Amino acid sequence: MESMHYESPATVAEAVRLLSDAPPGSARVLAGGTDLLVQMRIGRIDPALIVDVKRIPETRGVAVRDGALVIGASLETMTLRRAPDLEKNFPGLAEAAALIGSDQIQGRASLGGNLCNASPAADTVPALIVLGAQAEIAGPEGTRRVPVAEFVTGPGSTVLGRGEFLVSLHVPLPAPRSADAYLRLIPRTEMDIAVVGSAVSVTLDAGGTCTAARVVLGAVAPTAIEVPEAAAALIGSTLDDAALGRAGQAATAACNPINDMRGTVEYRRKVAAVLTRRAAAKAAERAAGRN
Amino acid sequence: MGRIHVRTRINGEATEFLCDPRQTLLDALRDELQLTGTKEGCTTGDCGACSVTLDGLLVCSCLVLAAETEGHDVGTIEGMAQGETLHPLQQKFLEHAALQCGVCTPGFLVAAKALLDREPDPSEKQVRYALAGNLCRCTGYDKIIRAVLDAAAELRGDTR
Ligand SMILES: Cc1cc2nc3c(=O)[nH]c(=O)nc-3n(C[C@H](O)[C@H](O)[C@H](O)COP(=O)(O)OP(=O)(O)OC[C@H]3O[C@@H](n4cnc5c(N)ncnc54)[C@H](O)[C@@H]3O)c2cc1C
Ligand code: FES
Ligand code: FES
Known about the structure:
The complex is a heterodimer. By secondary structure, chain A is α+β, with helices and mostly antiparallel strands. Chain A has helices at about 10-20, 35-40, 75-80, 85-90, 90-100, 105, 110-115, 125-130, 230-235, 240-255, 265-290, and strands at about 5, 25-30, 50, 60-65, 70, 135-140, 140-145, 150-155, 155-160, 165-170, 180-185, 195-205, 210-220, 225.
């Protein structure tokens, strides 16, 4: 085993400098470590430098700023879930965050790590995309914003370039009569990886007609996928059974899943429809209750 | 490989130790500090045998680098009893025979205490969910759940 260095910089600039100075591919950012340390343990990766970003204040907080909920990239979900602004504004994102692992895992796991790990089954990624969340990235050229929808480019790969890391997630506060929902299916009731995840956000007008919607599926393709055809089936409807059914069919058609021990291709396609219907109905019910 | 000097608090006491950069908190507790109450099961976050608290939050010590604890507070099973007096959770685990081989027990106790600290009156379902990250291969869980509910009642002063 080569020697490894551990650094815990206190500023964004210092973290960028450490990451930029490291030879390409040799450094890893550490947030909660619930993916990273497991991957090191099983020998999948062997970084020469670990940059722990948890001492950097910008990666830690959760607060409403400029019309968005700003979530520090390294903030553990157990603390995030206690933030009064999360559940109230984004019940779907809150339910996705609550699904990650056990209480022990929740004591460490962050939304930033969930996103940067770039697993197709990451639970909070579909939930962030339907909300139009943006990722704030710091790097040698300063900071930039990228929609979460464009952040993951394939299993295990992201838009992050050399010397860059994720600082925070910016989730625009919901418009009136808007709400989100996230549902996933796993073979057990706790502690497993999604067979399918479906996130839906909707906006209703005063008469209950859907004026805007987004539908994103997890675990059915190499990355989370947005299904505009499913959203189109919802928009203009009153989210009646026929519209929900069409959205479900569109979800099935968009799936490009794998066969594995958790589910066959056919099963995943079918479950994608069921979860999308139910998530859309749940989001609609929540939206109707908000004025 | 350079050893790292870490200053932390363990069960309320200021503690310093040296660790390797790759060493987990679990290994540092057991191998550097001889606090062997915290157990190793899977080393991948699945079994909860290594449960400790970090600044009051329940975590798997196998998924924390020892170096990360610099300046932080760690709570282990060794901090649970007051001298010779067992914590009500420990007492109830004995009374309900909620252990057999005992390897999972420190992890269950630490996790159960974390639950009762934030939710003194949990439902059975809440207890089962809160302990879903702890595996036991011996007891079948029921006795553990009953011991936790009974300890919660005692801590609340209920005489049901
Ligand atoms: C027992 C167990 C159960 C789990 N259950 C679930 C589950 O139900 N659903 C689910 O989605 N996941 C689950 N996971 C996976 C994991 O917990 C989540 O993906 C978690 O959100 C990762 O966050 P972290 O802070 O621990 O990331 P880390 O492990 O610290 O990092 C993950 C990856 O992202 C990179 N990274 C982290 N932060 C940044 C940053 N700010 N900038 C750039 N790169 C960064 C790291 O270098 C690493 O490659 C589980 C894991 C375990 C061990
Ligand atoms: S040893 Fe840490 S969870 Fe199993
Ligand atoms: S008592 Fe043996 S594993 Fe729980």
